[in-house]
Amino acid sequence: MQTPPSIHLTMGPRPQAATRIHQSWARCADLDPALLADPNPLPRADLDVRREAHRHLLHAAEPSLEALGALADAAHNVVLLADASGLILHERGSRSFQDKARRVALQPGVSWAEPLRGTNAIGTALHDGRAVRIHGAEHFLACNSILSCHAAPIFSATGEILGILDLSGPADDMRDYVLALVQRMARGIADQILGESPLRRLDFRLGQGPENGGHALLLLDDDARIAGANEAALHALDADWERLIGTPCAQWIDGPLHTRDAPLHRHDGRPLTGRLIVPPRMPARPASAPPAPRPAPSASLRPEARPLPAPDAVSAPLLDQAVRALDAGLAVLLCGETGTGKEVLSRHIHARSTWRDGPFVAINCAALPEHLVESELFGYEPGAFTGARREGARGLLRQAQGGVLFLDEIGDMPLALQTRLLRVLQEREVQPLGSDKRVPLSFGLVSASHQNLKALVAQGRFRADLYYRLQDMPLQLPPLRDRHDLAAFIDEAYRALGGRLAADARHALARHDWPGNYRELFSVLRRLRCQHPGPVPVMAGSLPVDIGQPADAAPGAPADGPGPAAEPDHPPGARPHPGTGLRALERHAIEQALQACQGNVSRAARRLGIHRSTLYRKLK
Ligand SMILES: Nc1ncnc2c1ncn2[C@@H]1O[C@H](COP(=O)(O)OP(=O)(O)OP(=O)(O)O)[C@@H](O)[C@H]1O
């Protein structure tokens, strides 16, 4: 294939350029020059849809874009914000440089992902999940050697890339501090998004002074488990998101977390200074106030930055059936208990179906705010109602055009809305609020529910006609307890985390009921691995006390296998009174262990084979 005249690949990165740039060049070696030659900007209307889908990110980034944009303007640079696919959503800064940048398609509506523009700061930062500067001839495309670009990822509180912040200027004006500045701004945007969470927040620093690293933030759920973290927190705790999320905060930080100004310590004893911030409850909206449109937290167009769990022996046949059905124009309905992987399967379906080049729009019907449902789903014309955005909105259904619409928790959709949705699905057209025009719709439809929709129909809580419209191909995702290969599956999953399970632990885990299915199982396994980082296989005695017990274990009845609660630490002959229940047995074992260890909680926990934080929790 001939290289188009405007696209000369440069001779390669400078010899002193870092390994990452060489690696990026190696990734780009086989790129199709024809693809590279055609930046293929999104039409304005489609770009607006992408911006709409990212309005939360754009809103959070606004103060940083403004501050950095002013600097960039003065320095004849531009600031760019790209989404998690590398598509540039927004630009600020110097007009004269914007014009130059446009000549090489560095402009909103163009994707700078590596496979489309070769080695470049946005694409390479996106690929590596790390900030990077790509200067002059380090760019894969010769035409881009006029640029010096600095890009940093913006991470969500759970480590997914939400977007990329970039500052670009002419190659003959490189300044060393710029990358650190962009990285700092990107972290500021991430903190802004994290700070909007309704969860409690632990705000801390390593050491006593401001010189000890950044402003670390942890989000804590009601059980004081870590639900989110910023990059500074990872640094302060010497951890990564994978190891932190879902673990009890007490596993990482010692100190009374329930107070506001607490003396805290990292587990190696290094002091932390911090405080717990409890966000104020959202004030109730006064009845008379018009409903103000706001970003729909219930919908996402975001590609999963974390890899999806690969289809396995159980989900692969379901996936095949679903893809065949969707490609044949049928609606797919996924049913299964919570955490059985309905959303994961739906993303695989999208990725394998003929709709894969279009968006994946997931709508959580249970979380759609009732007063916004119609406008969020169907869109509206400018000025359609009081409080509407001036420019109107396309609505989520139209955002799914050409892709897959995933209606999660469909059983929770209010009846009135079911009627409208049915009409839209039957007619394959939507009429935005305030408009007299109908817009044709074309997407693949996948719905999911953890509820028995047939029973809801029988109770009159779900429209029968909508039910039949959604379930051309109904598929049931089995709960974990129905997996014949559960012990082997758990063993393999734990090995993938780098650990080993002894046979008794494997079997105790396989006997557990797992009401939270994959979500619960993986949370327990990750926690276990944190508590037992070494190579020694974990024994059943080290499992959390509530694992491995049949849900209806009779008090005093012999347990179905070894496990900590099955072997309460009491002297022979001092068995607790029969009929005291599982909790009482556990309580008794804890009291005995504490007594034997003169109240030393750490030693008692070791004796019971559970983690100290678990014992603290049980003592509350
Ligand atoms: N086959 C699998 N192997 C490993 N992990 C999985 C698998 N399927 C799902 N998971 C993990 O389990 C968790 C729950 O998955 P998912 O959100 O798809 O379930 P769901 O059925 O949609 O849950 P809910 O009904 O509560 O929304 C996710 O963290 C996902 O990564």
Task: Explain what the structure shows.
By secondary structure, the chain is α+β, with helices and mostly antiparallel strands. The chain folds into four domains: 176 residues, Beta-Lactamase, CATH 3.30.450.40; 81 residues, no CATH class; 178 residues, P-loop containing nucleotide triphosphate hydrolases (Rossmann fold), CATH 3.40.50; 138 residues, no CATH class. It contains 23 helices and 19 strands. A six-stranded antiparallel β-sheet has the order 8-7-6-11-10-9. Strands 12-14-15-18-13-19 form a six-stranded mixed β-sheet. A five-stranded antiparallel β-sheet has the order 2-1-5-4-3, with helices on both faces. The longest helix has 20 residues. The protein is globular. Adenosine-5'-triphosphate (ATP) binds next to helix 12 and helix 20. Keywords: ATP-binding, Nucleotide-binding, Transcription, Transcription regulation. This is Sigma-54-dependent Fis family transcriptional regulator. Pfam families: GAF, HTH_8, Sigma54_activat.
The tally of domains stands at 4
Supply the CATH superfamily name of the largest domain. Answer: P-loop containing nucleotide triphosphate hydrolases
Strand proportion: 15-25%
Q: What structural category arises from helix and sheet content?
A: alpha+beta
- Mean pLDDT across all residues, rounded? 79
How many angstroms separate the termini? 70 Å
Put simply, the count of helices is: 23
- Sheet with the most strands? 6 strands, antiparallel
CATH class designation of the largest domain: Alpha Beta
For this structure, the CATH topology of the largest domain is Rossmann fold
**Over the alpha carbons, how many angstroms does the gyration radius reach?**
27 Å
Q: Which ligands occur here?
A: adenosine-5'-triphosphate
Spans where pLDDT lies below 50 across 5 or more residues: 1-6, 280-306, 549-580
**Arrangement of strands in the largest sheet:** 8-7-6-11-10-9
